[in-house]
Design goal:
The protein has helices at residues 2-17, 40-54, 75-88, 91-103, 128-145, 153-167, 195-205, 208-228, 261-272, 275-291, 315-324, 331-343, 350-363; strands at 55-57, 63-65, 72-74, 114-116, 121-123, 388-390, 397-401, 407-411, 417-422, 427-431, 438-445, 451-458. β4 (114-116) and β5 form a beta hairpin. A four-stranded antiparallel β-sheet has the order 9-8-11-12, with no helix packed on it. The protein has a three-stranded antiparallel β-sheet with strand order 3-4-5. Strands 6-7-10 form a three-stranded antiparallel β-sheet, with no helix packed on it. With 459 residues, it is α+β, with helices and mostly antiparallel strands.
């Protein structure tokens, strides 16, 4: 009996210290192509280079990301780092980046966009792309480590999503503002648009109607911009009005802002199968494959008519187009694009190396839609619910009766989570036939992470 109690205690300690999805995830996306030569080691190598060159420590467990001027840090870089560390399972770095973000927020609860090293605001107020990436990263962190530790990722994610809704989406139009203090229908930035995130935000906060409208508006603005300016492929301008016309801010070419657009948009196809996302991404991929003659000919800037305005061949542009090729329906072009990105070596360029790593995570199946952002998060009191499972012992399958929208985790004798899913009905059958015999624990939790645990014997 003492041995059994020790094993149970070990399992619960191991579970509390583990993560839901260790790296590499190696997910096979539900939509689109994946490169034949994809290898998560490529993504890990890129991550290690990025981390070694751009992550630096502050006091009290804070971390920051060095900008082009290494004495500065921008909110964009913090949020990129949060995404990467969450998907990589690098909890110490993730927590330190998020604490740094929170140390530097304005009165609206969004990070001031540029900071002097570890403290001191150099650029006031928010940049919306940073908020979007940080909020999505918090959802991933909630999935990875749950929200029962010193940082409540779930509450922080919901708070930040609310701030984005209130301050960074123009009232009544659903146009994404580029910051909490400016922009809207007269100034917007298509490269910030992240419709896949919006759908995740909607499910996570039970606000799908609003966020679906923001997603729909993103495609309207992009298509307006392409049509009004007779753009080739998916060459959106860096900045524009919601009408598609050029804005007073300038930014009329496909340059270092716009270059990220194919990556952000294709995620909506990879995760959700969205037809508008596929159409845009295929246009972008076909521009490279047909108009340019392949990935090796990409330069770092274009006019919207397709004429070249840049001179360098770098990861910011190559990798975004490689991601677009996942929706381009041409396997050989995707394979060449993947290898082109892999072979680019720009370790000391903040923007190029960071984006190369993000692109590589998506291309290798390590930038995925987490389970906790796929269904509504209606809360229920699990501790007052009736939870049963049978048969027990079992030779293969068990049926679990638990409230709809609870999360079932199967914990192996070694303490790892071998199966996890969100319930869609009150009765869920799980097949354990391919697992070894022994004592397993079945944890059923709600979205406040209250839980009940049952023991099952697999014979």
């Amino acid at each position: 009996m003492k041995n059994l109690l020790f094993v149970m205690a070990f399992l619960f300690v191991a579970e509390s210290q583990s993560q839901t999805q260790p790296f590499p995830a190696n997910k096979v996306h539900g939509n689109g192509l994946m490169a034949s030569t994809k290898n998560s080691q490529d993504a890990e190598t890129s991550y290690n280079t990025w981390k070694g060159n751009f992550v630096t420590t502050c006091s009290n467990g804070r971390y920051r990301i060095k900008f082009d001027d290494p004495n500065k840090t921008v909110s964009e870089g913090i949020a990129y780092g949060m995404l990467l560390s969450a998907y990589k399972g690098d909890k110490t770095l993730f927590d330190g980046l998020w604490l740094y973000y929170k140390d530097n927020v304005n009165s609206n609860g969004v990070m001031n966009w540029k900071i002097n090293g570890c403290s001191g605001t150099d650029g006031f107020n928010g940049a919306t792309d940073a908020e979007l990436d940080a909020a999505m990263a918090l959802i991933v962190a909630d999935y990875q480590w749950t929200s029962v530790g010193t940082i409540n990722y779930k509450n922080d994610a919901k708070t930040l999503i609310t701030a984005i809704k209130n301050y960074e989406v123009e009232a009544n139009t659903y146009v994404l503002k580029p910051g909490d203090q400016f922009g809207g229908s007269l100034i917007t930035n298509p490269s910030y648009y992240s419709p896949a995130y919006y759908r995740a935000f909607g499910a996570y906060t039970n606000d799908t109607a609003f966020w679906n409208q923001v997603a729909a508006k993103a495609y309207t603005v992009i298509n307006n911009n392409l049509t009004q300016n007779n753009a080739v492929g998916g060459l959106v301008s860096d900045w524009c009005e919601a009408s598609g016309a050029y804005s007073s801010r300038g930014g009329n070419t496909y340059s270092y802002d716009a270059a990220r657009t194919p990556w952000r948009i294709v995620v909506d196809y990879i995760w959700y199968g969205n037809a508008d996302a596929k159409t845009y991404a295929k246009k972008s991929s076909d521009f490279v494959r047909v108009n340019l003659g392949g990935s090796n000919n990409i330069k770092d800037g274009y006019n919207q008519n397709g004429s070249v305005s840049g001179q360098w061949h770098n990861a910011t542009f190559v990798g975004a187009f490689a991601c677009a090729a996942m929706a381009g329906e041409n396997q050989s072009h995707l394979d060449v694009s993947y290898n082109d990105l892999k072979n680019l070596n720009e370790p000391n360029s903040y923007f190029n190396q960071t984006l190369k790593t993000l692109y590589s995570f998506l291309l290798t199946g390590n930038f995925y839609l987490p389970l906790n952002a796929t269904l509504s998060n209606d809360n229920f009191d699990i501790e007052k619910s009736t939870v049963t499972l049978y048969p027990n012992p079992s030779a293969d399958r068990i049926t679990i009766n638990a409230p709809q929208q609870s999360t079932i985790s199967i914990i192996s004798p070694s303490g790892s989570i071998v199966h996890q899913q969100k319930t869609t009905s009150e009765s869920t059958e799980i097949n354990l036939a391919h697992h070894s015999t022994g004592i397993y624990f079945v944890k059923i939790s709600n979205d406040d992470f209250k839980s009940v645990t049952k023991k099952v014997i697999l014979k």
